[in-house]
Amino acid sequence: MDVITNLINQIDAWVWGWWMILLLLGTHIFMTIRTGVIQRKIGTAIKLSVTKDPDGEGEVSQFGALTTALASTIGTGNIIGVGTAIALGGPGAVLWCWLTGVFGIATKYSESLIAVKYRVKTKDGRMQGGAMYALERGLHMKWLGLIFAIFGGFASFGIGCATQVNAIATVCQENLHIPPAAVGIAVAVLTALVIFGGIKAIANVCEKLVPFMAAFYVIGCFIILCINYDFIIPAVVTICKMAFTPGAAAGGLVGRGIMMAMQYGIARGLFSNESGMGSAPIAAAAAQTRNPVRQALVSSTGTFWDTVVVCLMTGLVLVTSIMKNPAIDMGQITNGGVLTTLAFQQIPVLGPVILVVGIISFAYSTVLGWAYYGERCVEYFAGRKGLVPYRILYIAVAVIAPVISLNLVWTIADILNALMALPNLVAVLLLSNVIVAETKKYINNLDAKDDTEIEIIDR
Question: Which region is the signal sequence (predicted)?
Fold first, then answer.
């Protein structure tokens, strides 16, 4: 067993090595240039995200599709993941994480655009889309679409379900003294009540849950930053300085140099917002929208909120709290979860509450979002007959997740996430001319309706 574990860990280290980081970041920068710096439209995109488009064809509102995507991306990685980046890469990792989000907006826009452009409709009126359909219909590479769908379906059990439910169980046991087994059953029941209702039920829950949890967390972080106000400017200076140079700062913070800061900051940023992974476009394809550019802009705001706002807030809270509280011994901490817990515990009453509510709500929303992604992937390679078995297995994983060791599960899911990204990036890069053409066609006329007929499939 140790041999297998070591082999899987080596594969994980390789697939998430520098080549993958450079490929993803390179795609972010390339698509930023190709789309004419689409980030400049983020204000318009945010306005569109809360605007209903009843004239558009789709299953759920633009906001419903966005919150379903945000449900899966705003997860424990936004809290614990940022702590991991700081613990291993130093405070400078926060800057690289943030920059990854800024450039990642262009990739999220691009992958969502082709997901909507090449989406199809089933005979019973359900919209299907994502990297698999873009590969099949845009590039005639169905074999690669099948590979993406298989990786995505299996990854959902790990990163979308098991690891998230385990995080909920851990925080409930440590702070509320609720047995892990009881948490697993409760989460499984709540998940079953939602996912058997399909995308509309998932979107309805996410429309209510995601804005609440994000607002609660951001407001809580803002209050903590007000408490730590005297360390905000020193923290920003420290983050910017240590993104490029090694050294020490108040609170035992240590800059580990540009390479370490980049590696962990970029990796956590990519993992947090999922730009380039191909997951969020699956939800975007179900949106009611007049044209691909309109929904692509809405989807791009997911990366903005997830990394540019939420991850930055977490980073500032952690760094200011560490600098203000010398009791946090950075020399003894290499675990992001431990660092995050210690930092939030320095704030009486408010800190632990924000941490507990944040992790529970973020993790549960991720369970719902990834359930939808997994369903669409399974339906692509197994047909509709695979949906009920998939849902039953997904719920079963939620039940057992709190009482099993997840180190190996997490690593395997991490590998599958990277393998998902490769076919998706092939689609984005090879269809970049299509993305540019569609952008030019609709960017200054967002109310124009796409007259391309959506293909009806027998599935």
Answer: none
What tens digit of pLDDT does each residue of 123-164 get?
A: 888 889 999 999 999 999 999 999 999 999 998 998 889 888
Q: Is 129 domain-assigned?
A: yes
Q: pLDDT value at position 102?
A: 95
Rounded alpha-carbon distances, angstroms, from residue 400 to 181, 393, 396: 8, 11, 7
Residue-level pLDDT at 254? 63
d(CA 61, CA 385): 27
Q: Is residue 34 part of a domain?
A: yes
What domain range is 87 assigned to? 11-439
Looking from the CA of 283 toward its CB, the CA atoms found within 13 Å total: 37
- Whether 4 maps to a domain, the answer reads no
CA separation for the pair 377, 92 (Å, rounded):
37
User: Does residue 133 contact residue 120 with C-beta atoms inside 8 Å?
Assistant: yes
CA pair distance 147, 278, nearest whole angstrom = 13
The rounded distance, in Å, linking the Cα atoms of 111 and 277 is 9
Which CATH number is 255's domain given?
1.20.1740
Q: Would residue 194 count as lying in a domain? A: yes
What's the confidence (pLDDT) of residue 45?
Answer: 94
Q: Extract the residue ranges of the chain whose pLDDT is less than 50.
A: none
**How far from each other are the two terminal CA atoms of the chain, in whole angstroms?**
41
Cβ count within 10 A of residue 25 = 22
Predicted TM-score (pTM) of the model is 0.90
